[in-house]
Amino acid sequence: MFKLEQETTVFSDEGGDTLGGRLSMARDAAGISLETLASELGVSEETMLAWESDRSEPKPSALVTMSALFGVSPVWLMTGAGDGPDEDSDQRALDAVRNEFLRLQTAHQEIGRLIEATTRQIERLDHQIRLRNVSKDIAH
Q1: 3-class DSSP string for 35-70
Q2: pTM
């Protein structure tokens, strides 16, 4: 069985945390949906996803706005140093991890659907090629 330590900190900066990871973590901890935050900032959900996955970075003014909405310091969002999400709230930490897990489950399901669709497409193309080859063999 797992041995629990005295204190467990979900919002640590260990393991190469990134700006995108901190944005996602703080948004989850604040209980703000991706759609709501994107609307509040006047950006698309795709832009928000790009920020949270470190494919692009928000402007400093957007970081300041988000830090106020999340209740964290702008410096923490940018560097991981300073005041992050309220680490004393076990329920908020649990909710943040559950939200991340749900996002992973959704992504996993979507990948499964894409794999199935691609498998069907491969089978269909393979069948078409075999039929053409049989037709060519008959014609010769």
Answers
A1: HHHHHHHCCCHHHHHHHHCCCCCCCHHHHHHHHHHH
A2: 0.52
